[in-house]
Design goal:
This protein has five helices and five strands; from the N terminus they run H-H-H-E-H-H-E-E-E-E. It is α+β, with helices and mostly antiparallel strands. The chain has a five-stranded antiparallel beta sheet, with helices on one face. The radius of gyration is 22 Å and the shape is globular.
Length: about 160
């Protein structure tokens, strides 16, 4: 029994030393799991706020500002990659990464700041052909047009649209 245990331990140790990639994957897993867990907790918090009748009664017609709730999970200065992992784990559908092309022919003219912003949306509730409640998130980078940009500002809004 002892000989089998020692042989197995020796084989596993040899495998661990021969395959350094395997060792890296083991050490980096908790960070990814932590981001996924943060995303799941963010969704639970957003759902709890949505289900609170007090919030609905006092909310303006434009919606409920959820920026402070989202900022608890995506702090200012976080990389866009980590922010993306958290939002996707929460169930957000993310738009294309910035910078967005300038639409010269478009009827609607957006401010220049939105050209470098990143948008995401999470559908919380939908009533058949009547209404849809969702959370829209806009992430602004600290350095526009930089692929390694970090989050400088977050705007999040819970709103209901009627079809």
């Amino acid at each position: 029994m002892r000989r089998t245990f020692l042989g197995t331990a020796l084989a596993l140790t040899s495998l661990y030393l021969l395959v350094p990639i395997f060792a890296f994957e083991i050490s980096s897993s908790p960070a990814l799991d932590a981001l996924s867990q943060q995303g799941k907790q963010l969704r639970a918090d957003l759902w709890e706020i949505y289900r609170d009748p007090k919030e609905k009664a006092t909310s303006p017609s434009s919606g409920i500002d959820m920026s402070s709730t989202v900022t608890r999970y995506i702090p200012i200065g976080m990389s866009f990659d980590d922010a993306e992992r958290i939002l996707i784990a929460a169930g957000f559908k993310m738009g294309p990464r910035p910078p967005h092309p300038i639409q010269k022919e478009s009827i609607v003219k957006y401010p220049e700041a939105f050209r470098s912003a990143w948008f995401g949306e999470l559908d919380l509730d939908q009533t058949f052909l009547v209404s849809k409640t969702s959370v829209s998130v806009t992430l602004f980078p600290d350095a526009p047009d930089n692929p390694n940009a970090r989050v400088k500002e977050i705007q999040a809004l819970l709103h209901t649209t009627y079809l």
